[in-house]
Amino acid sequence: MSSSSAFSTVRSSFSLFAFVFLFLSPVFASESDHKYQPDDAVTLWVLGGNELIDGQIDIKFQKNVDKGTICQLELDEAKVKEFKDAIENSYWFEFFMDDLPLWGFVGELHPDKNTGKILDLTYSIKWIPTNITFARRFDVYLDYPFFEHQIHWFSVFNSFMMVIFLTGLVSMILMRTLRNDYAKYAREDDDLETLERDVSEESGWKLVHGGDVFRPPYSLALLSAVVGTGAQLALLVLLVILLAIVGTLYVGRGAIVTTFILCYAFTSFISGYVSGGMYSCNGGKSWIKSMILTACLFPFMCFGIGFILNTIAIFYGSLAAIPFGTMVVVFVIWAFISFPLALLGTVVGRNWSGAPNNPCRVKTIPRPIPKKKWYLTPSVVSLMGGLLPFGSIFIEMYFIFTSFWNYKVYYVYGFMLLVFLILIIVTVCVTIVGTYFLLNAENYHWQWTSFFSAASTAVYVYLYSIYYYHVKTKMSGFFQTSFYFGYTLMFSLGLGILCGAVGYLGSNLFIRRIYRNIKCD
Q: pTM here?
């Protein structure tokens, strides 16, 4: 049984329902005898706040049951009050039979008092023939009018047009400007007067070409770790979306969660490879620190948030609490698969792609950065950089939030793939523009700025989640609020690291491209 909080509310449940609603508990089939196996542990599924309990109901195929009794329950005032609260707040239950979910509300209120009465908890089963094939049996759970509404198509089209406009704008402005700069710097036979005039007229990004732009950033180990983790998350999201499109993961109970965790473990090599190569290219020396930080940063952030939420769930006696056995399984996956692969990737990245290849020699003495107007400061550039990427995923966030918090089955992963690719392209373009403006302000500290200008997309997503909480849900109370914002914070952190890594890598390629043909001292 997986009993959950009501319509438009977070996944909360009380221990009372685990006892009272045994007759509504799940019976799911094994491949061998189509009967629930008491020793079958649903491990990663419970990470979504769904712990199943055996309903002890013996359901046989095509055998109707008019009235079967599970047990008897004697009501007292406390139980009547909790029943009443559950009914008035539209709490509903969920149970599974042969991996198909069924939902129902707790019951109805009657004016007469039931204190002291003994209730027979019963169930009935009726088999009805259908023409629906086994492969299409899950279609009844899919809300086609909601997900395939014309506004969903329009949002994707609108985002696609934004990509075309933005990439065209970036290409036109930057390449037109840079072409003139290349022509001037490529001249071999300038006379002294022309050269002196060119030097006196230099401004913007051309003044920081002497190697300052390739100076290692501060907190290099941390930046390498978040960029490596973000590259891994980008590949992870792409893999999960493709697997969902090919294999219809939404049909299997907990398949998305299981796929996500396993794919994360096996893609940890990417985070180490990118982080190790970046750390070595910038002359980093503390290899142990870099490896440990890359392997542990994101998992430990998620663990910290999950630990707090799990403590709250245990305090409230909720089935959303993750069992100790499941935590052990997740830790073993991380310790014996993810962690070693991240370390291996760091070593490989250090040796294969870690040779410095800067177009310009880094100067010993850093160039002073002039004071510029407020809108060209790194903080403003970073904050404004997330607006357009958020605009490209704004509508899709509504569908994702509604699927997760309102229990709709999200199945339009083709839409998600398009939106994800659009997000990547928009993030790269916007970050390149922001980096170009920063260099024109003669500020060569572009590394962290490019990361945060892309990562700020997550800030707007979290602000949107606050709006969604107050306007689109009926949640209340500390338990529901903490779970909502805890899960959203975890999602936003992952999205921010992903976008930040994409923004940094795009800006890094852009800078190496524009300074490649510049003559350096």
A: 0.79
